[in-house]
Each structure stands twice: as C-alpha cells, then as structure tokens.
Design brief:
By secondary structure, this protein is α/β, with parallel strands linked by helices. It is built from seven helices and ten strands. α3 crosses α4, α3 runs parallel beside α5 and α4 crosses α5. The longest helix is centred in the last third of the chain and has 18 residues. Pfam families: ABC_tran.
C-alpha cells in the first residue's frame, strides 16, 4: 500500500523568458519501508522533487499525498506539525544551528516534540555514538569538519524515529568508512523500524544499497527499477 503518492506534479519557474520546468509531469508512489535512491545528472530535478515530497516546496501543478493527507490542503501550521512528527530531513548544506553543540542539534527536534531532557539526551548520545561522533558531542558545528557536520545532520534526522527520511546527497562529504557506517545505520532502522528512506544522490555507494533506483532527467522519470533483495 502506497504511503506516498505523487500525481502528475510539475514545478515551473516563469522568471525567465522561457519557462523552466524543474519537475515535469512526475507520477510516483512509495510503499512503507522503501529504501529508494533518486539519481540523475545535476539540474535534473532531484532536489526539487525531494523538497516537494517533504512539503518544503509546492508544486505548480499536481498532488502530493502522504499517509492519506493531501499536503497542499494543510495550513502552514499543520504542515509544520506534520513534518515535525513524520519526516526527517538531511540537507546538502547540513542546516545545523551554529550556536548549539552537536548533541544539542540532535536533541532540537526532540525538544520541539516535547520529550524530556533525559529522554532526548539519551537518544541523541546513542545516535552520535552510532555515527562515530560520541567523543564530539560538545563541539559546535564550526569545530567539526564538513563530513562530521553531515553525520550530525543525519543523526538529527533520525532522532525522532520519523516515518520517512528524505536525504539530499547525505554522503557527499563522507569518506568510504563513514559512508558504510552511515548506510548500515540507515539500513538497520529501515529494516527494524520500517522507516522509509528516499535519497537524492550521485553516490554509487548509496545506489548499490538501494532497493529501488529512480532515474530522472530534465525533470522527468526515465526509469524506475526495483531491485530484489538477493541482488543487493
């Protein structure tokens, strides 16, 4: 049963003389527990599609239905609450809060959800340990390398055990060992907790782990391949 449905969405920018379609007539559905990669060349529409799936961007046409909710029909407050409770984001630019430590950045979403200080501290420490930053919990983003900041961002996205994680190039700044560890953590959460992962990526290491690979070019889906578990 589909938990995410994308119905003929388009995103057009009309600021130029010739309209530019970042996404052009995409129709997709995702079932609970998918581990999917969206691939394609730079400028193909991967990030725009991911942002539309997460309710960060609004399509010019078409519908996005997540967990039976029509995203376009939600008020701004309802959309914020929905994302807070259901979606974890990992951005290329990390989007960490500069004045907070690593552990405080991971805790932030849990604080917004009203979890107790003890509960959120325990969860944040656990995730930072798993991404190999257990000894850097009190460092602020400026004290961490780009790869380390990305790992904090991934830990933050996973902190609330969301239904869905949308990740835009989550391994872009990671070395091979860190990438392997990170993907193993995500696979474990996907397998044991049923979290749906959708990646936008150029990284062949992510693509090899994916059980579904969607290729887009010029804002259109050109292939959609499901990979059997015994072929991973």
């Amino acid at each position: 049963m589909a938990v995410i449905e994308v119905k003929d969405i388009r995103k057009v920018y009309t600021e130029t003389k010739v309209p530019v379609y970042a996404v052009n007539g995409i129709a997709l559905s995702f079932e609970k527990g998918e581990f999917a990669a969206i691939v394609g060349p730079s400028g193909s529409g991967k990030t725009t599609l991911l942002n539309i799936l997460g309710g960060i961007d609004v399509p010019s046409e078409g519908e996005v239905i997540i967990d039976k909710k029509h995203i376009a029909s939600l008020s701004s407050r309802q959309l914020i609450d929905f994302r807070l409770k259901n979606i974890g984001f990992v951005f290329q630019s990390y989007n960490l809060i500069p004045v907070l430590t690593a552990i405080e950045n991971v805790e932030f979403i849990l604080q917004l959800q009203g979890q107790s200080k003890n509960e959120r501290r325990k969860r944040a420490q656990q995730l930072l340990n798993e991404v190999g930053l257990g000894d850097r919990v009190n460092d602020r983003p400026a004290q961490l390398s780009g790869g380390q900041q990305q790992r904090v961002a991934v830990a933050r996205a996973l902190a609330s055990r969301p239904q869905f994680v949308l990740a835009d190039e989550p391994t872009a700044n990671l070395d091979s060992k860190s990438t392997e560890n990170l993907l193993n953590i995500m696979e474990k959460l996907n397998r044991e907790e049923g979290i749906t992962f959708i990646f936008s990526t150029h990284d062949s290491r992510v693509v090899k782990k994916a059980r579904r690979v969607i290729t887009i070019e010029d804002g259109c889906v050109v292939s959609d391949e499901r990979i059997a578990p015994n072929n991973i």
